[in-house]
Batch of 3 targets.
Target 1
Amino acid sequence: MCRHKVAFISHAYVESAYRRKLLYLAQSTDLRLVTPSTYPMSYGWYALESRFNPEVQTLSYPIHFLHFKRSPTRWFLRSGDLGFSQFKPDIIHVEMEPHGWIACQALLYRRLFAPRAKVIIFSWENLSLKEQGTKARTLEYLSRFNRRFVDFFICGNVAGKQILVSKGIPANKIAVLPQMGVDPDVFYPYPHEQREALRQELGISQGEFAIGFVGRFVEEKGILDLVEAVGRLKVCSRRGLVLVLTGRGPLENSVWLRAKELGIRLMILPQCKYHEVLASMNALDTLVLPSRSTSFWKEQFGRVLIEAMACGVPVIGSDSGEIPNVIGNAGLIFHEGDAGHLSECLRLCCDSEAFRRDLGKRGLDRAQKNFTNQEIARRTSEIYDEVAGQNDREAALIEIAEAVR
């Protein structure tokens, strides 16, 4: 089978540590990453770099937002063709919602410069129109128009597929697949001696039960629910406890104050880049993702879960959005917003080392089987073969029609 020429459009890979999936994809395709030359992150503008995985062929262009508010879907690239006129892709893979400006740009340029290319859209959307506001309903008109020109959809979660089916997209044109995964050589369990040395370096005492969180300190991540749950555990546990938070956000002062009121020993580690999370994960006895659904958001995946699982760290998650599907039977699930239920889950892990080891092993097995970048790239490549096969079938029908004439 010939190698497909793939134009892969996304802003997620400005930081090259995320590009491992693309490196695997490039082994079976002729792939070009089309990405912004810079992108605004929570800590400032991040310039395209190639410290990791420089082998991925990249075309970069200046990014442009149509208004002051820099929404992740309201941008396009300052390019007259996105490289299509020279590259002539067989497949255009866009990691953006159908109503995103870059998706609109890609569809327009496909028509102008690569009319035979098949278009694949990756979407994180997991809220129905009833769960969203007036703005989303307005954007649905644009999404509906664009969906007519999309050949295949990849959803980052189960709810996304259900929503697309409800909008009339055939189920056989939709796959459920994470945007990216982890790699065993980047996220892995530390040996016992290395782990103990790391905990000592961070100031975690021997025998302390370290409960971790990695992410934004915002209401929808449920971080204050986690603080309350740890406070309840502290009342009934004989073990020393330490709450280890990695990240930043507007609730940081509230977290400090509430932890002090409850007598919780709290450590806040600075926000770190993707490849630096490994050490934070390996210092933990359990990682918690206590997300809370809101009127505008519910957890779309929860990548920190698979990172912790790949490190052999037991995971506990709320039942918000995709979290139960990510964890499966390899961790504990509690009802979102229920600090009492979360405290019980923490107590199970705190009281039994054997139970923690079993959860950690199940999580590690699940991550290595389902959530590696290599596996995600393999499944994506199968989608490319399926979608590109439509071109072959169409060409054969044209040949038959011409022969009949």
Note: The chain has two domains: 5-181+373-404, 192-370.
Target 2
Amino acid sequence: MTELNIKKEIGKRIFESRKLKGLTLKALGELAGGLKQTRLTNWEQGARAPGPEEIKRLAHALDVSPAFLMCLSDEKQVKKTKSLSQLIPLLDYHQACDAKSHIDAIREQGSYGDELLISISTILLPELSDEAFALKMANESMMPEIKVNDVLVIEPKISPNPGDYVAVKVANKSEAVICQYKKLSYTSPEFELQTLNENWPNINLTDALELTVIGKVMQKIHQY
């Protein structure tokens, strides 16, 4: 096999492995340690070939063996262990009100398509379910702790403790709200949702509002 054909075959294997995992070029670049989309495009098109260290990073991100990507073996050797990193979708505040349905729809398509993705660290990964998602802070209601454009990792299956930040759905409102969870009594389930910016109002159960806690904020990624 000529050098040109090897480059083409390596590119084909990267492309097919990426599509099999439902990853965009951007998502693959993030999983592989920040590789640029232009480099990935050149590799997939066979214009250039990745080096040994880049092959290792791609193989890890794609769950295949480095030998497979380098055309030294036809055995993919997909890993059976849980990946050390994971991508979760970045939803908007409308989608967050019904996050599970939106995430299920993405999975049924078999691809994240044009969805924006957030890479989750190894340390946080064991605490997250397959329903986790991210939100970008859109206002100053939680200043100074949470700034505008900070990214929040939300886990719907973990109940909040007093003092935790939460995403909440308010009845008759089409967008989620970020607040701090505060218990009002040791003996009752009543709680209050507080903002940290004094210019923004708190949300009280006494306001006769129907509230649903969407999920607990597990991580704040400042100025993502």
Note: The longest strand covers residues 211-221.
Target 3
Amino acid sequence: MTDLISMTAVEAVDSLRKGETKPADFVDAAYARIAAVDGPVNALPTLCPDRAKAAAKSPTLKDSLLKGLPVAVKDLNEVAGVRTTFGSPIFADHVPARSDIFIETIEARGGITIGKSNTPEFGAGANTFNEVFGKTRNPWNTAMTCGGSSGGSAVALATGMAWLATGSDLGGSLRTPAGFCNVVGFRPSPGTVARSSSTMPFDHLSVQGPMARTVEDVALFLDAMAGQHPEDPISRPAPATGYLDQVRNPKAPKRVALSPNLGFLHVDPRVTEVIAAAAGTFEAMGATVEEACPDLTDTPDIFQTMRAVIFVAGHALDLENHRDKLKPDVVWNIEKGMALTADEIGKAERARAALYARVAAFFGEYDLLACPTAIVPPFDVDQRYVAEVNGHRFENYIDWLAMSYAITCTSCPTISVPCGFTDDGLPIGIQLVGRPRGDGELLGMAHLFQQASGISTKPIDPKG
């Protein structure tokens, strides 16, 4: 069991392909590991062993991409017949009849859902806790947060309860927990992964994406996710050359822009110290490193406005019918959206158009933008959000996430890769941003960085 848990996803799929192991072996190993380590961290509160074990017997798995490898699914993604709560008391007993098309695609390509990973209510906030399942803790120090909103997925990966896990990302929900837990989280370009949406199918801000322990594994998982679907109007075909193939034939960056604060953010010195050391890693890869960044100073206004619109579209009826069951942060977001004027929304759209033009020009000069994944290391799990850094106080619960949501506004693909640790052993992630629609190219560069950094991502036991 230990040998199976220690495998990368690529190694596991190769073992399944050769017939050295069976899907049931990995399903059993996953549940044994969950029983051994999930107690202190609370990453996978909902399990579906009967469903998983039945799926492991399917004869179609041998011809599939993932060959029957187990997958942890974020509790924002519906899975047919499996309790899906969205982290909300409103949906505490919800069992969907159909899976998200995102999950249907993964399972059709050989992934086996083993359970649901914990998330904050409706994915709002970057500390994973809710009134249904409670707190998910960071395995590197269980007194600390694992980040969010894909916190349960990141913890499941870091502790070896899963080889692959799904994440979603609006303002950093996939990247922040990856950075906090020493794993990899990739936010693909909008439309790369088809997703279900009953309220905003044309939205370009929120995406689904892969999480794993290595960039190679993330690329494999993206191959199992990507492609066009008639129910998603912005989805696009998978590339002619698969993402894993692109990672295995990478193009090294020649010119890297390294920014400690995106030109306008307050960042904890413990973070900037680790990120600064990454310059040497890029130089060892043969790149020229310069401190540079496109102008992103108006992204807080752009993002806050557009996010509020999304909350109105998705949750106005929840506010009307179940206000007493919503956490204050979600209520604030919905009401902020309801108070917006058409002029404010139009202004944000125009500002984002100008932003995209600046970013496209920037990537005409640079191959890669590198910056911290988050402005702080993991913090106290009982602290709802970061309220202050370096004497600067934030106005609301998402202001501290500008390092990630500023990049969301650009529509560029972006990935969090392990970069190092603080003096007291807390993980720090580096965010690597690629040129527009350059998903495969970015994954290749991130793979080269992860190889050059030499940071281990082997599963760990939770540390108290």
Note: The CA atoms of residues 42 and 204 lie 31 Å apart.
